[in-house]
Specification:
This protein has about 350 residues and is α/β, with parallel strands linked by helices. It has ten helices and twelve strands. It has helices at about 1-45, 100-115, 130-135, 135-140, 150-155, 160-170, 245-260, 275-300, 305-310, 320-340, and strands at about 55-60, 65, 85-90, 90-95, 120-125, 145-150, 185-190, 195, 200-210, 215-220, 225-235, 265-270. The strands form two sheets. It has a seven-stranded mixed beta sheet. A hairpin with a 4-residue loop joins strand 10 (about 215-220) and strand 11. About 40% of the residues are buried.
């Protein structure tokens, strides 16, 4: 009996030793990963031109944070006009959108580091537009996986892409410069996709060509926070990009019916605790724009005449109206001309 007890005790000691060794190895691996991450980030932090910008980190939920750009055109506020966010998990950080220049992404990285030292694992780009994209190279250079929706390569491979980048190198000099490049995604998502990181669940929903050539949303399930990208603009006039306004409206109508969220983070503007109201604002603007420009096309009016004759009073006091509304109207007018002959 004593021999049996002694054998069991010896086995327990051996098992405990293995567990302790494995724990030490895991702890050492984690320390090594943090050290490697810190070394990469130290290089990145000094690589790009400094940018002094007001960027407040807002904690939205236990694991979820947002930085909010100011309403304006692309070159306002050092290019900081769009939103980005991040979710902290036990295994690392998921970043949503990368802002409009590498120095802005560096500033975002600094804010993340005030919250956690965990590595940046994934960067979800909601759509390939410059104000959400040009900072992605910073996260790529520190080892993050870049994920984007199907349709992104239409932007990347467009003949106009080099010209757009060249324009930003002038209008946002020195923050967008010869070091700035368009990051190609590591992963393209073409359908609803779920993934887990550090015990938290995420859902990527591919919207398609609505606001842009390809859009997606990201739901952080544990916190009930949806990052919509530019499918929704909060408290300001939307910018109508290269997608389809009819598909965009239908997408928003579907979201109105199916959303059960704590918070919605739009591509621009403040997070909303009332997602339905946030959706209605963007949808009502798009519907109005299609109605008035559609009527103009049907009546074969000239764009200038139609625009000047329209009563814009419902929207003209909203942020960004003066900078984007006429361009939006012209975009919709031309697209509805195309629709009329299809």
């Amino acid at each position: 009996m004593n021999k049996f007890i002694n054998n069991r005790l010896a086995l327990a000691i051996i098992l405990t030793s293995f567990v302790s060794l494995a724990s030490c190895q895991t702890g050492q691996a984690n320390k090594t990963e943090v050290a490697d991450t810190a070394a990469l980030e130290a290089t990145v932090l000094t690589k790009y031109p400094p940018l002094e910008i007001e960027m407040e980190t807002k904690k939205l939920a236990p694991h979820t944070y947002q930085v909010q750009g100011k309403a304006g055109i692309a070159t306002d506020n050092g290019g900081f006009i769009s939103n980005a966010g991040f979710v902290v998990t036990d295994a690392g950080v998921v970043v949503i959108d990368a802002l409009g220049s590498p120095p802005l992404a560096v500033e975002l990285l600094k804010r993340i580091r005030k919250v956690t030292d965990k590595p940046i694992k994934k960067v979800i780009i909601t759509h390939y537009h410059a104000d959400h994209l040009y900072g992605a190279q910073v996260f790529k250079e520190i080892g993050a996986e870049i994920i984007a929706p199907i349709g992104s390569y239409k932007y990347i491979n467009a003949e106009s892409a080099p010209a757009r980048l060249a324009e930003r190198r002038e209008s946002l000099k020195p923050w967008v410069n010869e070091q700035t490049y368009i990051v190609e995604p590591d992963v393209i998502i073409d359908k609803t996709t779920e993934f887990e990181l550090g015990g938290q669940q995420f859902v990527i929903n591919v919207v398609g060509a609505a606001h842009s050539d390809g859009d997606l949303t990201l739901l952080a399930k544990e916190d009930g926070v949806l990052f919509s990208g530019d499918i929704i603009f909060g408290g300001r006039v939307p910018f109508i990009g290269g997608g389809s306004t009819s598909k965009w409206i239908n997408t928003l109508a579907g979201m109105e019916q199916g959303l059960k969220l704590n918070l919605l983070v739009p591509g621009h503007g403040p997070a909303s605790g009332n997602p339905t109201d946030a959706i209605k604002l963007t949808k009502s603007y798009l519907k109005f724009m299609r109605e008035v420009m559609g009527d103009a096309v049907e009546e074969m009016e000239e764009f200038v005449d139609a625009y000047e004759a329209t009563d814009w009073s419902k929207f003209e006091d909203m942020p960004a109206f003066s900078s984007v509304n006429r361009l939006n109207a012209n975009t919709v007018f031309l697209s509805m001309e195309d629709e009329s002959v299809e």
